[in-house]
Amino acid sequence: QVQLVESGGGLVQVGGSLRLSCAASGRSFSGYRRGWFRQAPGQEREFVGSITGNAGITDYADSVKGRFTISRDRAKNMVYLQMNSLKPEDTAVYYCAAGEGYALWGQGTQVTVSS
After folding, report:
1. Going by fewer Cβ within 10 Å, which terminus of the chain is more open, N or C?
2. Is the dihedral of CA 72, 94, 108, 82 positive or negative?
């Protein structure tokens, strides 16, 4: 079964850090862009950042540039989202996605930033 599983979410204070992980199983996504998205209550899901499959080039939403970093471990089929200097507006369910056109999504992990 092909699936993505996020982990690492939780409750953190303003200015704190969290590291999210996205584990892929069932197939390799090494040649595909892997993305992170988030959805806050009552809001649309939004793009956070991505990393390309081959060159590992990253791209970020303006709202997280300089604070969030995406990395990967191709051998482990893992992608990570390091989140620093967290703000209350970063509170959301975070999802990872992979595959052609982000066809596959994880179940999400909750991140709550308290002020």
Report:
1. N
2. positive
Rounded Cα–Cα distance for residues 41 and 106 (Å):
18
Report whether 6 contacts 105 (CB < 8 A): no
Nearest to 37 by CA among 105, 114, 112, 89: 105
Instruction: Give percent above pLDDT 70 in the chain.
Output: 100
Distance CA 24, CA 67 (A): 24
Give the pLDDT band (50/70/90) at residue 81.
Answer: very high
